[in-house]
Structure prediction request, 501 residues.
Amino acid sequence: MRLRTLCLLVTIAGFSTLTVGSTHGFDFSTLEKGVHERTLKNGLKVLVMERHDAPVASFATWANVGSVDDPKGYTGLAHMFEHMAFKGTTTLGTKDINRELKAIKIEDSLFMLLRSERNKGRFTDSTKVQALNARYDSAREASYQHVIPNEFGNVVEREGGVGLNAFTSNDQTAYFFSLPSNKVELWMAMESERFLNPVFREMYKERDVVAEERRMRTESNPIGRLIEEFLGLAFKSHPYGVPGVGHMSDIQYYSRAEADVFFKKYYSPSNLIVCVVGDVQPEQVFKLAEKYWERIPYRPAPERIASVEPPQLGERRMELEDPSQPVYVAGWHIPEGTHPDRAAIDAMLDYLGSGRTSLLYKNLIKEKKAAIQIGALSGFPGDKYPTMSLVYAFPSKGKTNQECEKEIFAEVEKLRNTLLTEKEVGEIKARAKASFINELDNNQGLGLQLATFQQIWGDWRELFHQLDRINAVTAEDIQRVAKEYFTKNNRVVVMSNPSQS
Prediction:
């Protein structure tokens, strides 16, 4: 499993240039005609795309829930549940489910007593905590004796499955892997079972894994620390400002009871999308979906988050001291991914800071050697709600964040005051189209993209109109969005300077 957003953050330094390929001859009409859909009685949306090139199929379960939906006081719970979904069911992953559930009940009761005592603050009785800890540790080990570790993954591997993985982003959680195409029923049975009869076994052990993940990717990582501060500064009202992995105190606080409440709210069939892409027959897939997935009763899908980030009244800025190389990040608030301006904003950021032909690369790296790496991206940390664009820089030895900032703002100002040429706009479009098409070159990529557009746009067909949105962008559009969104008052700056001590 991987936390998609955090992985992006800690690998920013390795941001790579997109390879531009030919977009001619890519027949979207054929792809679109190959997609079949059905909504089951319990509200589950099933999408199937036939591709008979090889006897394999890729499967994805897409949940319309992400870190942005974490309850207050339980940040990181969406990510935690992603881990829990691999722990098996009442029939998979256990030596004796009745004995295991009894042991889990004892484990939970002791943890709740321990949690209650710890939560008393300065009135906590340390002697009582020590005694409870010993009993709790013993109960944990007792419950683990009934577990068959990693049985879900082991079954998938034995049956020829590959690519078993998942991710939690701010906007969604996805589970996916591929199997031989004659194993469709196996996938239907196993995948539906883990959302019908889940057992959150080994939860407290896995919670320790998530806590270590936070230490590694945020608390011990200069970029992770900086990005967490950046998002907290950028979002005052909207939960995009809350770290997706969760705050450490929350990670150590939540229990199986909170995980169960979260699961019942967000993992209803009406809040899920199932995608199957590969060597399959749609009607057979739909029949199997009805057989297995309709066992899960209907529950209403939760509402969207109502919080709206208010407009900034002025630039927000923070400087951190950190015993590491200097790092610079500037961001501007932009609309959600479905907004009509997003294609132009994405085009502007591509021209500004994506790849070796971008303005910032040529200016800061090639000519002035002020930075060793630089980049720009949009839709951070998500796209479901109004979000951020981002420009980052790693100053060269002997150079400073302030020197990089001066050049970055100068290039942004050029885009606000100068129209790009027809040739430049054409090159931007070519890169965008190549990048988009590259994401559709395999079954898994197609499945994940179909699910993305079904969730964010409400209709998977919007996937096949993405090139139209790219083609419609003009030089005037790029200049207009630069003037509207890339202003000082709409800007957030966070930089990490080497410690002086």
User: Anything to note?
Assistant: Residues 97-118 form the longest helix (22 residues). The first strand starts at residue 2 and ends at 3. DSSP finds 19 helices and twelve strands in the chain.
